[in-house]
From TrEMBL:
Keywords linked to the UniProt accession: Membrane, Monooxygenase, Oxidoreductase, Transmembrane, Transmembrane helix
Membrane-crossing residue ranges in chain numbering: 12-31, 54-74, 94-123, 143-166, 178-198, 226-245, 257-274, 280-298, 305-323
Molecular function in Gene Ontology: monooxygenase activity
The protein's name in its UniProt record: Beta-carotene 15,15'-monooxygenase
Length: 324
């Protein structure tokens, strides 16, 4: 299976759909009786009002799967366009579809899954900074993207420092570029506040936005529910060795790209502390970067029996723990 996705073959799109369905079989066969969730933050309700009971349990899984497939193709295009893995393939798409099925909360429609469209857009923007002479417009767009993501899911605001980290990694210092991202972010905030002001409810806006919040006190984890992550950790450790082995033989842009992806992964994970109520689907924010890192191992591993077995083990764990 892995060997099939190591090439950029259009037929892989069909296999991708089939794998996405198979990896979600357990959830599809054990759908809950009802489904109620919010796709936007409460302070966005004045702009867009989406009923919490709009989707049935089946439609929630169905649309989530469609969204995942679209995002997988977009991620695959970005990785191949910027040659982040050294050769074109469908591996990032396969690993994205697989990783978004790791835990049951990932499989249903949720705000973080929608916000991942913006994460992919940010990755594409970050990758383009190195090739541009002028990046003021790119940083302004990135600031607006972060603000838009915050309207969907508040912890997305943790992506804002990535704008300046990307400038440190890719560019010499230029204060205008550092201000441009913040200006883009403030532009969206100003627009939202203006709408609230014109509706005479500006005070409600400040009451609903969690502008200041203490670090999340913690959460309870049932280790049995997360045994499925063991193959992921094995793949990540193997990927780290593979990336390190080839790191200094890669061109400068690719090396810097991996640094920004590493920071994206860290910020995505740590930003759970900004959640008012902790939800496990928060960690979907880390999946785009995670899929790229995991792809590096599967594309560069030489022993077919090993990398094929590792992927089959991962898929088996995902399906098994959906039924138990």
């Amino acid at each position: 299976m892995i060997n099939q996705f190591r090439s950029l073959n259009p037929v892989n799109l069909i296999f991708l759909v089939v794998i996405a369905i198979i990896l979600r079989t357990g959830v599809l066969l054990r759908l809950p009786d009802s489904s109620s969730f919010s796709l936007l933050e409460s302070y966005t309700g004045l702009l867009i009002n989406i009923p919490e009971d709009l989707f049935t349990p089946f439609s929630s899984v169905f649309y989530a799967t469609v969204v995942v497939l679209i995002q997988a193709i977009l991620l695959n295009r970005i990785v191949n366009n910027y040659n982040l893995l050294g050769k074109p393939s469908f591996m990032p798409a396969l690993l994205y579809v697989t990783a978004t099925a790791l835990l049951e909360p990932f499989i249903v429609l949720n705000p973080v899954l929608i916000a991942n469209f913006l994460v992919l857009w940010m990755i594409e923007k970050f990758m383009s900074i190195y090739r541009r002479e002028k990046v003021l417009s790119v940083l302004f767009d990135l600031g607006m993207i972060v603000a838009a993501g915050t309207l969907i899911y508040f912890p997305f605001i943790a992506m804002l420092p990535l704008l300046w980290i990307s400038l440190i990694i890719f560019r010499p210092f230029n204060w205008r570029e550092w201000v441009a991202g913040l200006t883009g972010f403030i532009t969206i905030c100003f627009f939202v506040m203006t709408v609230y002001y014109l509706n005479g409810s500006l005070n409600d806006f400040f009451k609903t936005v969690p502008l200041v919040k203490a670090f999340h006190p913690g959460f309870h984890v049932n280790p049995y529910d997360y045994i499925v992550l063991i193959p992921v950790l094995l793949i990540l450790v193997s990927s780290a060795f593979t990336i390190w082995h080839k790191f200094y033989r890669s061109n400068v842009h690719v090396r810097k790209a991996y640094f920004i992806l590493l920071f994206l992964l860290l910020f995505s994970i740590l930003s759970f502390s900004l959640s008012i109520e902790y939800e496990i689907y928060h960690f979907l924010l880390a999946i785009p970067a995670l899929a790229i890192f995991m792809s590096h191992f599967f594309l560069n591993a030489t022993k077919r029996w090993f990398y094929e077995s590792v992927y089959l083990l991962l898929a088996a764990f995902i399906i098994y723990f959906q039924f138990v």
